[in-house]
Structure formats: structure tokens, C-alpha cells
Design goal:
Shape: globular
Radius of gyration: 14 Å
Strand content: 25-35%
Order of helices and strands: EEEHEHEHEH
Number of strands: 6
Strand order of the largest sheet: 1-2-3-4-5-6
CATH superfamily: STAS domain
CATH topology: Transcription Regulator spoIIAA
CATH architecture: 2-Layer Sandwich
Helix content: 40-55%
CATH class: Alpha Beta
Low-confidence stretches: 1-13, 124-129
Mean pLDDT: 83
């Protein structure tokens, strides 16, 4: 199942779902409006039963730190439902924005989307033992 949308600002956002882990890929500049859109997409995905989400920021040039608080709130919502929001592809610049916003420890981060997806699988297997 794959979902793709063109955001009016020209940022391409796509969510692809494999097994029970959704991956949202973002590009370009992520302002307040784009981050709010991501929050809405997380809400829709959680209502469709996808509680495990990877946000791929490898093609994002800039994030508006003001939109990170609501993103963190969505992550808490996913965690309360037994899932999580994991980030991947953070450049040093984006990592500095998360630090400046006081959210460096609010998310697990990974180099690649596949690494983040594997982290969901390994935590599943740990719970089953």
C-alpha cells in the first residue's frame, strides 16, 4: 500500500506502508504548515491502525523548530497506543535544530529508513521472548 501527495509548497511527501510500519518521506523545507500536515498524516495513519511510523528526513533542507513540539505530541500519542515515531536521515544541521528545540532525546534516530524499520521488528521480537 503506498500513498503519495504533492504539497502546495512543492515539498514531496510520500507515505509507504510495509507490513505494519509506515514510512513518511519528506523533501525540501518543512515549515510550520508542512509539519502540521505531517501531524495530520500521523493522525490518519494511527486511525488506520498504523502505530509504528518512520519519518524520513534525509531530503529535508530545513525544519521550522516551532513545528517540532506538535510532532513530539503525535509521537507520544503513537507511543501510548503501543507504537512509536522514529526519525531517520537527520543531517547534522537538522539534528542541531532538534537539540535547539530541546527534543534531541524525544525521538530515536537512525541513519536510514531500513534501520528504523528493523528497530521496530527487533523490539517486537524482544517483547515476544
Amino acid at each position: 500500500m503506498a500513498l503519495q501527495r504533492m504539497v502546495k509548497t512543492g515539498i514531496r511527501e510520500a507515505a509507504s506502508v510495509q507490513t505494519d510500519v509506515a514510512v513518511i518521506r519528506c523533501e525540501g523545507e518543512m515549515g510550520d504548515m508542512e509539519l502540521a500536515h505531517i501531524g495530520e498524516e500521523l493522525f490518519r495513519l494511527s486511525h488506520r491502525g498504523y502505530q509504528k511510523v518512520v519519518l524520513d528526513l534525509s531530503r529535508v533542507d530545513h525544519l521550522d523548530y516551532r513545528g517540532l513540539g506538535p510532532l513530539s505530541a503525535r509521537a507520544r500519542l503513537l507511543r501510548s497506543a503501543g507504537g512509536d515515531l522514529k526519525l531517520c536521515g537527520l543531517s547534522p544541521y537538522l539534528a542541531a535544530i532538534f537539540r535547539a528545540a530541546g527534543l534531541e532525546d524525544a525521538f530515536e534516530t537512525y541513519a536510514e529508513a531500513e534501520d528504523a524499520k528493523r528497530a521496530f521488528l527487533s523490539s517486537f521480537f524482544c517483547l515476544r521472548h
